[in-house]
Amino acid sequence: KKLDRLGRDTADMIQLIKEFDDMGVAIRFLDDGISTEGTMGKMVVTILSAVAQAERLRILERTNEGRLEAKAKGVKFGRKPKVNKA
């Protein structure tokens, strides 16, 4: 349905597209309105998968920066400690 859900990174996407192409199968990404049919389709999918990979990396960076900032401010992560009835 969406291109960025098929593979983790650009190399994975290229390999998957090649494997499917070798079997005579074209992939259509309905939400994105693109397909691996033809040379141009494969090129567009490759470029968009690289963009999706870059976006995932940016999200990871921002998430990690936010965690570090929260820890520096004293925010505790994880489950709250259990209360023992003793």
UniProtKB/TrEMBL annotation:
Gene3D superfamilies: 6.10.250.10
InterPro entries per UniProt: Resolv_N, Resolvase-like_N_sf, SSR_resolvase
One Pfam entry name: Resolvase
Residue span(s) of domain Resolvase/invertase-type recombinase catalytic: 1-74
SUPFAM superfamilies: Resolvase-like
Family per record: Belongs to the site-specific recombinase resolvase family.
Name of the protein in its database record: Resolvase
Species this protein is from: Pseudomonas syringae pv. daphniphylli
